[in-house]
Amino acid sequence: MLSIQNVVKTYGPKLRAVDGVSLELKPGVLGLIGHNGAGKTTLMQMIATLGKPSSGQILLDGQDIAKKPELMRRRLGYLPQDFGVYPHLTALEFLQYFAALKGVRDPARIRRLLELVNLHEHGKRLAASFSGGMRQRLGIAQALLNDPDVLIVDEPTAGLDPEERLRFRHLLSEIGFSKLVIVSTHIVSDIENMAQHLAIMRQGRLVAFETPEAILQQAQGQVWTADMELGAYEALRGQVQVLHAQRQGRLISVRMSHEHRPCDGAHVAEPSLEEALMSQRYALPQQHPLGLAA
């Protein structure tokens, strides 16, 4: 369906924001993950025809979208990271306005989309009065107005509370049953239960294209847990990759990544997807463990 072939995007003589990325994508949910500045947004903007590759091609059903952007735009739904609303329009008026821009003339579709995103009881409220989660759901509704085959969402759960995050992830997962959904995020929990594949980017390059199950399998036997005193922890943390550390009374409860048993008393643990992605193979950024003050 969507073929990304050795795509490069350069800015000036030195900066390669996207560096030779190739992907073959079909309907389902793709998690595009990596640290800030990894090239995720630049790649999505090129897929959305908001920018052109410096070299390489992006093909939709065999057609080059840089040469024929209207082919993608007719079939695209896009929710950017910073989604704004017009202050004097209700949710219903907002969708009616975008429907007119997209050539959608079916009022019933707007009502169905408001129901889909659970905003049908708030259609007459000013969109500017919505919470962050409600605005994101309104953003998804506008992205779905033209019944797109490709839906792109950039950092969709930033600023949402836990309940809204759960509802939003479920909605995207259902959309992915029949459409290609590309979700860009650096928050692994956003996509671990809904993505069929993960495309992992670092410094503009694609470092892996795997299923979540394959990534977890590769981390089996490499995540360990142990309880130790603070002095032992401070001596150990320079020798192993610490994934998480938390004070439990007088001891420190530590989860760590290592090819072999890192210390006496360590027990092998089941890795989470986030822990698997923090391994040296993928080298996603790691937060330093907190809560260790004496």
UniProtKB/TrEMBL annotation:
Residues 2-228 form the ABC transporter domain. CDD domains: ABC_drug_resistance_like. Transmembrane segments: none annotated. One of its GO terms (molecular function) is ATP hydrolysis activity. Keywords: ATP-binding, Cell membrane, Membrane, Nucleotide-binding, Transport. SMART domains: AAA. It holds the Pfam family ABC_tran. Gene3D superfamilies: P-loop containing nucleotide triphosphate hydrolases. It comes from the Bacteria. PANTHER family: ABC TRANSPORTER, ATP-BINDING PROTEIN. Belongs to the ABC transporter superfamily. This is ABC-type multidrug transport system ATPase subunit. It comes from Roseateles toxinivorans.
